[in-house]
Design brief:
The protein has 191 residues and is of the alpha+beta class. The chain has four helices and ten strands. A hairpin with a 6-residue loop joins strand 3 and strand 4.
Length: 191
């Protein structure tokens, strides 16, 4: 499945390789059928899970059972490519809200490992998301790593929860556009 990692969009889904190995095949098929505009054409997108945010392109959607936490969980993802970057959001509903903290930490570690990121120099920073639970507090990660082809990839990601719902919002690019990242991340809301 590593031959699919030729773009930042596929890098996002590579982060879920450990969670859902078949997901890359499903999403590669979606990408061959639909494509995003190469410009940043922002639009509000509402997830069934109560998450809303601005995306710069029409997203593809995928859903897969993954081993996130102590038992298989349905992970729903939206993602698209625009302006040389990948923008994506993934949501999972856990069976027990007591698992949220551990799952968010696990998810961060898996993502960093799969993008071959250097160890973080500092712990994740706190991040404000309208409607998100305060405990555990939403966190913000910035990382640099590499795709399977050896090319550099930078990421910005937010992890947060509402009840038993866990969310990852992530942007990947060879070089992060600060204005696009600001628009994307400050638009986050969860009900």
């Amino acid at each position: 499945a590593d031959f699919f990692v030729t773009s930042p969009f596929m890098t996002f889904f590579l982060a879920f390789r450990a969670l859902a190995p078949g997901l890359l095949v499903v999403l590669a098929g979606l990408l061959t059928v639909t494509a995003c505009s190469p410009t940043l054409n922002w639009r509000e997108v509402r997830f069934d899970a109560g998450v809303s945010l601005l995306l710069p392109c029409k997203p593809d959607k995928a859903q897969k059972q993954v081993p996130l936490g102590p038992e298989p969980t349905t992970l729903t993802m939206l993602g698209c490519e625009a302006g040389g970057a990948t923008f994506a959001v993934a949501v999972a509903e856990l069976p027990d809200a007591a698992q949220v903290s551990d799952v968010l930490i696990q998810w961060q570690a898996i993502t960093l490992k799969n993008m071959k990121a250097a160890p973080l120099r500092a712990p994740p920073a706190l991040f404000k998301v309208a409607g998100a639970d305060a405990n555990p507090a939403p966190v913000w990660l910035q990382a640099e790593g590499q795709q399977n082809d050896g090319s550099a990839v930078h990421s910005r990601a937010a992890y947060f929860a509402k009840g038993a719902r866990v969310v990852q919002v992530v942007m990947y690019a060879p070089k992060i556009n600060p204005d696009a990242a600001d628009t994307f991340f400050t638009s986050l809301r969860i009900e």
